[in-house]
Write a structure and sequence with these properties.
about 150 residues; mainly beta
Length: about 150
């Protein structure tokens, strides 16, 4: 099992070029797990700096979300998923404060963060690997499937 479907939920403009921001739906024995949530809306400040392009969301019945990190373009859809368990590194959640993060996109009514401290096995064949650098608590998602091991 553990089929991975790439999703393009948004794009941002970096140095005049449009960059895709991918999310991934992983079909696990525990249900569908979404890696990152893209964006569901924007702000005038983000529009001016990043020129985001939002794409339609697919219909998903989710068991959980894994945020690789909490930058606006990777967690902007979390608010759409209030109540869904959302796995994030404890250090990343602690670091997610203004002005570097959109706190209202991270901390909202119904948020249900499951805080992790380093590498962790989350579901059968799905784990996270602490990979700080891009952000203080960045994590990569490791998926075992029919193709072998895939790192997202």
């Amino acid at each position: 099992m553990n089929e991975i479907t790439p999703l393009l939920l948004c794009e941002v403009t970096v140095d005049g070029q449009r960059w895709p921001v991918h999310s991934y739906a992983i079909e696990t024995s525990s249900g569908t797990v979404l890696v990152d949530t893209g964006m569901i809306d924007s702000t005038p400040e983000l529009d001016a700096e990043w020129g985001p392009v939002l794409h339609p969301w697919p219909e998903l019945e989710l068991a959980a979300v894994i945020n690789t990190h909490l930058h606006f373009d990777h967690c902007g859809g979390n608010r759409r998923l209030a109540g869904v368990p959302t796995y994030v590194q404890r250090v990343e959640l602690a670091a997610a404060v203004a002005p570097d993060y959109l706190e209202e996109w991270v901390r909202f009514d119904g948020s249900n963060y499951v805080e992790l401290d380093g590498d962790a096995q989350l579901f059968d064949g799905v784990s996270v690997l602490s990979t700080p650098g891009h952000s203080a608590g960045h994590q990569s998602v490791v998926v075992e499937n029919g193709d072998g091991i895939v790192v997202l």
